[in-house]
Design goal:
Layout lengths: L10 H18 L1 H5 L2 E2 L8 E2 L2 H21 L6 H14 L6 E3 L1 H12 L1 E4 L2 E6 L2 E7 L4 H5 L6 E5 L2 E2 L5 H8 L6 E7 L7 E6 L1 E4 L3 E6 L2 E6 L6 H15 L7 E5 L8 H11 L4 E7 L6 E4 L4 H5 L5 E5 L6 H11 L4 E4 L7 E7 L5 E10 L15 E2 L13 E2 L20 E2 L10 H11 L13
């Protein structure tokens, strides 16, 4: 509900009316206002605020809003003022909460569908700039030569400073065939680089698969709506290529997978598990707390006895960590690579009708062994580093969630060191992948593979 506040001269006479409305809201919705908390002492010691304190803050907001309307040098867009206030509230909570304009909400829905018009990069914000987490294979950004850790400072000559991530992403998307110029700062390069890129349809196939030395390799790039169906199709395709004989092992590649839909992460985990907990979520209310469990089905029976390795790195986040954590805790898979990103929170998209939507962090998730990886990440069972080319050394590392300003604190000690996001396009030079292949073939030995069931 939005309140339009009267002019300053009328505030005194309206105070009683506003107080009446406010008290009515308290009477009608006491649980909502009773949950309002303020960290006056420490973050771990919230105290409940009094109702008149909340009322005074609402009056303050109205006074500021009215002053802007009445006295700003130019006539402001009142709707944009309200939206900016909402955005400010949400972004002050944590890096993953935010306001989505109707346009941004529509684009987000396209993203999760797995098909949209744009450049083909996974991005985050760092120090006010757009940071590339990874370019998506065979997209305009990938072909143009953009690299992980590049900082985008300008879009068509306009600085990204002051933009939200959603606003920047909205600009980079657009009609197929249109051009955009990105100004990029790259570590080790003295002058900013300019990339002229033609937008194209980014149809991201959630899963790519192939067979190497009788081993099935599944590359899951994001948890879009096609994630589970892609995994199922890939597994059946691997069996078909091997004349319906089981592969010697399966490798599930989650490197640089930024996450996506939680229900798809649960469904994919269920494909590899026949029982037990997949993930737990806990929020402030029972509605935001849930327990997801695996159930036996035809697919997990088909691959039950096949050794499984999961590849992770610093770009494996959110839903990827849900899946990796479940398979690690259930001792279904051995994890190889480097520590994951450490995003252990769940966001709900709350639709606001014609006004767009809000993305709100509503719960933390926990792996089956009841561990939170927020700001910590998941450590692999076998740590294997890539052989990074000299020209990319120092540019391939991100710190992860623990480096994001305003992140929600972890329940365990937070990660302090970086984790690589480098994955070579040439599989023959992929140290982590080839280590996994050799482990399955018996060319290497490690007590972490295969995992021992408790």
């Amino acid at each position: 509900m939005l309140f339009l506040f009267p002019t300053m001269s009328k505030f005194a006479q309206m105070k009683k009316i506003f107080l009446f409305i406010f008290c009515a809201l308290i009477f009608l919705f006491p649980p909502i206002l009773a949950n309002a908390q303020y960290n006056e002492q420490t973050e771990n010691e919230p105290i409940e605020r009094q109702q008149d304190e909340i009322y005074d803050d609402l009056i303050l907001f109205g006074e500021v809003f009215d002053r802007i309307r009445a006295e700003y040098v130019d006539v402001p867009d009142e709707k944009e003022l309200i939206r900016a206030a909402i955005e400010g509230m949400l972004t002050s909570l944590d890096p993953h909460s935010g306001y989505l304009t109707p346009e941004a909400y529509e684009e987000m829905m396209q993203d999760t569908s797995g098909k949209f018009g744009g450049l083909g990069i996974q991005v985050t914000m760092e120090d006010g700039y757009v940071k590339i987490v990874a370019p998506i294979d065979d997209t305009p950004a990938f072909r143009a030569g953009l690299l992980a850790n590049d900082l985008i400072t300008e879009l068509d000559g306009k600085s990204v400073k002051g933009m939200t991530l959603d606003e920047a992403v909205s600009i980079m998307k657009g009609d197929v065939g249109t051009k955009i110029v990105l100004t990029v700062v790259r570590e080790g390069v003295d002058e900013p680089l300019k990339f002229e890129i033609i937008r194209d349809i980014i149809s991201v196939s959630a899963v790519r698969w192939y067979v190497e030395k009788n081993i099935g390799i599944l590359r899951l790039s994001q948890f879009s709506a096609q994630a589970f169906s892609g995994i199922e199709e890939g597994i059946r395709g691997i069996f078909a290529e091997l004349n319906n004989n089981p592969p010697k092992g399966l490798i599930l590649d989650l490197r640089n997978n930024p996450g996506g839909l939680v229900d798809q992460a649960v469904a994919v985990a269920d494909a590899f598990l026949d029982k037990g907990v997949i993930v737990l979520t806990r929020g402030r209310s029972e509605n935001e707390s849930a327990r997801y469990e695996a159930k036996p089905d035809e697919l997990d029976r088909l691959i039950a006895d096949i050794p499984l390795i999961v590849l992770i790195n610093g770009g494996s986040a959110s839903a990827s960590e849900i899946l990796a954590g479940a398979l690690q805790d259930q001792r279904r898979a051995t994890l190889i690579g480097t520590r994951s990103f450490g995003k252990g929170t769940v966001q709900n998209i709350i639709y606001l009708g014609d006004d767009g939507a809000m993305r709100l962090t509503t719960s933390r998730y926990y792996t089956p062994s009841n561990r939170s990886i927020q700001a910590l990440g998941i450590s692999p069972d076998i740590e294997v580093f890539q052989n990074v080319p000299d020209e990319l050394k120092g540019k391939d590392t991100i710190v992860g969630e623990a480096a994001l300003e305003g992140h929600i604190n972890g329940e365990e000690e937070e990660a302090e060191v970086g984790s690589s996001v480098y994955v070579p396009s040439d599989a023959t030079k992929d140290t982590q992948l080839n280590y996994a292949i050799d482990l399955i073939l018996g060319n290497k030995s490690n007590e972490a593979f295969p995992p021992k069931k408790e």
